[in-house]
Amino acid sequence: MATSGTNNLEKNFTVKLAKGVLDSFESLRVLSKNVNTQKLDGKFNPESGTTTLFKRPMDFTSTRSAGGDISSGTRNDLVRGTAFGEVQDYITTDVDFDEVEQALKLGNDEEEIYDRMAQRLVTDLEVDFASYMMKNTGLTSGTTGTAITTWDHVAEMGSVLQSIGVPDRGMWCAAVNPYTQTSLASNQRSLGAGDGLVTSANSTAMIAKNFAGLNVLAATTLDTFTTGAGADRAGTLTATPTATYVAVKDSMQITVSVTAFQANLVVAAGETFNAVLGVTDRLNLSTRNPVINGSGAAIVWSGTVVSTVTLDGSGAGNLVISGPPIFEAGGQYNTVTAALASGAVCTLGGAASTTYQPNLFWHKNAFSIGSVPIKKLFSTDTIATTKDGIQIRVSKYADGDANKNIVRVDIHPAYATLDPFFAGQGWGRA
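The structure assignment produced for this chain is given below.
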C-alpha cells in the first residue's frame, strides 16, 4: 500500500501542487481581484504577439437648431481608439523537487507550502500591477503629498469619479496604506463593513464597503516614487502639444516638451503634472460641461508622468503624461475646456527630494489583468486557471547537469489600461 501511495503521489504531483497553490493564490489576491480580468481572458495566443487590442467606445456631439437644418454644421467622425494589452515578465518561484515531494508525502507543512508559494506569486504580481496602475492614472484627488486623515478625503475620491462622469458606482474601488486605518479609526460608521464570514485577503483588506460609492481596501502593495532634488518644480511648455483625439486615442497619453524646471531635475514616474489654474480645466466626460468643486471653482487638469525622465541643464525635456488634455473645436472627445499651448506654465505636484506613496482609486474597468498562455516545457506540467482567467503553471523537471529534480510555479501576466480617466491618485487636504 505504501508503494502504491508513493507512486500515486509521483504521478499526480503537479496536479496536487497546482490545485493547492491555485486555491491559496485565489484567497490571497486583493488589487488583481478588483479590476476587469475578463477583458484579457483568452485574448492572447501565439498569433497575438506581445500585445492585444481593445476597442474604445465611440462618442458623438449633438447640435440644436430651431428648424432642424444641420447642413451648416460639422459632421461627427467615426473614429475609434484602441487600448493595448501589454505582456509582462514571467513571475516564477522554484524549489528542489525532493524537498516538496517529501513534505507532501509526509503531510508535513502542506498548507504552508501552498500558501508561501502562492504568497510570493501574488505579492510580486500585485506589487508590479500596483506600480503599473499608479503610472497610468489620469485623475487626482486632494493635494499631492498630503496624507489622508479623514473620511472626507476618502469621499473626495468618489466625488472626483462622479464629477468626471464615471458610471457604475458599485464598481468603484480605493486602495490606501494600511496605516490610513489609524487615521480613520475615530469614525466607525463604515469600518469593518466587509463580510466577516469570508476570510480571503480581499475581504480582510476591506475597510469600508460602498462608502461614497467606493469599496475601500487596505493594500500593502502600493508603489512609491521619489521626487528629484531641486526646489524649482514649475516650468513652461516649449511647444503646443498634439492633443487631438486621433493623436492620443490608442495610448491615451500625451508628450509635453517643457523647460525652466530645476536644472537636471529627475522627474519620476508616478508624479503629478498640473496645468495652472485658468489654463485648462477638466470636463465631465458625459455632459462635456466643466467640472466644478464644492467651493464653486473649476477643477484644473492634471495627469500622471508615465516614465522617469532626467531633464537637461536648462530644466528642459519631454515628459509622457497619462490622461491627456484633449481639445478640438466642437470635439467629440474633449476632456478639457481649452488646449494646452506653448508658453503655458505647468507644475509638478509635491515637494523635492521626497518619497511618496499615492493611494489609488479606480473603476473596475479602468484596468485589466490577465494571462498569456504559458508554453509547455519538456517536463511534467499542469496548468491551473483561476475563475477570472489567470493561469498558473506547475512544472516538474530535471537539471541533468546539476543532477537535480526541480519544481517551478509560473504566472505570465499581461496588463491593459482601458481608460486612464477611470482611475486616479488619492491624497488628503491640509
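Interim note for the steering committee: The two ends are 71 Å apart (CA to CA). Residues 110-135 form the longest helix (26 residues).
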